[in-house]
């Protein structure tokens, strides 16, 4: 399931995901193979933090484990760091049914 | 595996004496009674409130007749509001030995402790002589919970426990997941897994109820520590918790004290019905564990990233550690090192299979780490529930 062209320090959780997760801390300036392209980290990646596996357009859904975890609030380049500065929740509590369980 | 058969046909993987206090005022005496026998199978449970509560009564009835329990000592102060006669009757009707001691009628602390110890000691001797029977995986009920989570929980331990859940359901065991407040954003996905559309609607309503409840309480469902750990959104956090449920179809929704009618995957709805009362639904992980046990869980799978140490009264807790660094620091408390998935030395299926095999070993009598360390945490507080609706447990064609 992991993309063979992605550095083993990154974990691709499911096919079709557009982000990978760092298995361990990776220092700023590290050169990494990310889905077939070499990327130099512009900032340190904490353990469990996310990196874009391809160019992601503003408004596009971020998919982890095959499930959407929110949408990009701005364009994210291939290899870009993905966190609260460019990813926001799509979850709107007002859209869920409000009837109580019987 | 082997188990002790009870009169309702269920089998227990342990044969404990429960020492149950019926109000906080009887807690100390209960602890003192059980203490010398804590390694021989005496476990303290109880309800601290003085005012009667239907939920607490049902919980105590289910816990005192749990398959892992062979005999029950009820310890009352004497003037509390708990319906002790009904609880005593329920236990007696289940065929278990039961003794009710009221401290006020038995000469106070010292005399009650002595009487209680004499009774517990005699029961433990009886229970030790009871024969066991072979037990099949299909007779198991297994609950799951996560606590002390970090970014690794959703990457390693939770999905690995999900695999173990899939293996259990395949072999017709009942598997229960919960924490509806941590499934917010996942309800659409869950509904698609329901065995009927009506159950799907109930699943959505269940999460909506949790969202509303937590909104009223201002519950911090997404904490700054989550973001430090690399989680960005509530969906992302929920997805990690949701992964514990595995990939099997969802067979039903139950509430605390409801026992799954057959094998399959069940959601335990832990959020009270009606207006927000009595505070937080579950004030700590052990409150949820107690509810899973009241639903008949023989074993609890507990995923932790930061490193929880708890066990539980009445049912063994299997600790699955998600984070390899936490495992290195706290290996003595952990049963499974799911952090190997992050280190690249094991995959999800391998760890899932390891958890499944460990459940069977624990069912054959092997002690979990928390059991060996003497952890017997228990907590029960006030709640109120309506019974589940007819769509929650669809008949199987």
Describe the model.
The complex is a heterodimer of chains A (102) and B (397). Chain A has 102 residues and is mostly beta strands. Helix content of chain A is 0%, strand content 30%. Chain A is built from no helices and 9 strands. In chain A, the strands form 3 sheets. Chain A has a 4-stranded antiparallel beta sheet with strand order 1-2-5-8, with no helix packed on it. A 3-stranded antiparallel beta sheet of chain A has the order 6-7-9, with no helix packed on it. Chain A is globular, with a radius of gyration of 15 Å. Chain B is of the alpha/beta class and 397 residues long. Chain B folds into 2 domains: 2-133, Response regulator (Rossmann fold); 137-396, no CATH class. Chain B has helices at residues 27-34, 54-64, 84-93, 108-128, 157-170, 187-193, 197-217, 224-228, 234-242, 285-294, 324-330, 340-343, 348-363, 369-372; strands spanning 2-5, 11-12, 16-21, 42-46, 69-76, 98-102, 133-134, 141-146, 174-177, 250-254, 264-268, 299-304, 317-321, 336-337. Chain B has a 7-stranded parallel beta sheet, sandwiched between helices. In chain B, strands 4-3-5-6 form a 4-stranded parallel beta sheet, sandwiched between helices. The A-B interface holds A 8, 11, 13, 21-24, 46-50, 64-65, 67-70, 82-84, 87-91, 93, 96-102 and B 150-152, 154-155, 159, 184-187, 189, 201-202, 204-209, 211-212, 215, 227-236, 239, 243, 253, 269, 273-274, 342-344, 386, 388-389, 392. Chain A: Keywords: Hydrolase, Lyase.
Query: What is the average of the pLDDT values of chain B?
Result: 94
What is the rounded Rg of chain B?
20 Å
Average pLDDT number of chain A:
83
The strand count of chain A comes to: 9
Multimer state = heterodimer
> How many DSSP H or I helices of chain B?
14
Report the structural category of chain A.
mainly beta
The ordered H/E elements of chain A are EEEEEEEEE
Please bin the fraction of helical residues of chain B.
25-40%
Question: Which secondary structure elements does this structure contain, and how are they paired or packed?
Answer:
The complex is a heterodimer of chains A (102) and B (397).
Chain A: E1 10-11, E2 19-22, E3 31-34, E4 37-40, E5 50-52, E6 61-64, E7 67-72, E8 81-82, E9 87-88
Antiparallel strand pairs in A: 1-2, 2-5, 3-4, 5-8, 6-7, 7-9
Chain B: E1 2-5, E2 11-12, E3 16-21, H1 27-34, E4 42-46, H2 54-64, E5 69-76, H3 84-93, E6 98-102, H4 108-128, E7 133-134, E8 141-146, H5 157-170, E9 174-177, H6 187-193, H7 197-217, H8 224-228, H9 234-242, E10 250-254, E11 264-268, H10 285-294, E12 299-304, E13 317-321, H11 324-330, E14 336-337, H12 340-343, H13 348-363, H14 369-372
Parallel strand pairs in B: 3-4, 3-5, 5-6, 8-9, 8-12, 9-11, 10-11, 12-13, 13-14
Antiparallel strand pairs in B: 1-2, 1-7
Helix pairs in contact in B: 1-4, 2-10, 5-13, 6-7
